[in-house]
Amino acid sequence: MPETAAMMTKDGRFGYQASGDSSLPALVFLHGIGGAGRGWRHQIDVFGDRYHAIGWDMPGYGGSPQLPEVTMSALAEALKDFLAQLGVIKPVLVGHSIGGMVVQQLLAKYPDLAGAVVLAQTTSAFGSSDGEWQKNFIDARLGPLDRGESMVSMAPKLVQGLIGDDADPAGIALAQDCMASVRPETYRSSMMAMIGFDLRKNMADIAVPTLLLSGSKDNNAPAKTMAKMATAVKGSTYVELEGVGHLASFERPDEFNEVINDFLSTTHELSGTSS
Question: Is 0.90 surpassed by the pTM of this model?
Answer without folding.
Answer: yes
